[in-house]
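YM 10:42: NADH-FMN oxidoreductase RutF, flavin reductase (DIM6/NTAB) family sequence, as discussed on the call
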Amino acid sequence: MTKRSFGPRTLLYPHPDLIIGTYGPDGRPDAMAAAWGGICSSNPPAVAVSVQKVRQTYKNLMEQREFTISIPSEEYVREADYFGIASGRDTDKFAATGLTPIKGDLVNAPYVGEFPVVLECRLLQTVEIGVHTQFIGEILDVKVDESVLGEDGKPDIGKIRPIAYDSMRQEYYGFGSVLAKAFSVGKELKK
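YM 10:58: structure's back
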């Protein structure tokens, strides 16, 4: 198979669409879309998100040291995109989108009430990487709307309908159907 080189780029499929919730210096709830993020430790459970220093969320994170990550469903793709293109310096993003900021139970940070999955996080450390700072947060709690739980009581990705981002095409995607059972289908190749 012939492969074409695209050089060093931020290509990784898929990028999650994560909404970082913080409070600004005036106490106003703020939210920012970030696609540079994901789970980075299982013990302690931790997530990493990268934010440019010019962003209001960067300043909020450095001051508050607590944040949430809300995972939007497909029906909120417009609002999630808006969180990434408007600045919290001069815009009340919650008022503009009509979405509800809810104060976290364990952290001093807001989450998006309408989004089905929320992680409450306390900052563990930061890592400077070029124009971004990676914020690593310990996950103190995960909240999931009961409406997106499966019959087994676990979150169901088919009901959550999270958004994926394609950085090359600058487009959002949904997820398809289950392909196979993890830690199982590969056993067919074990000898």
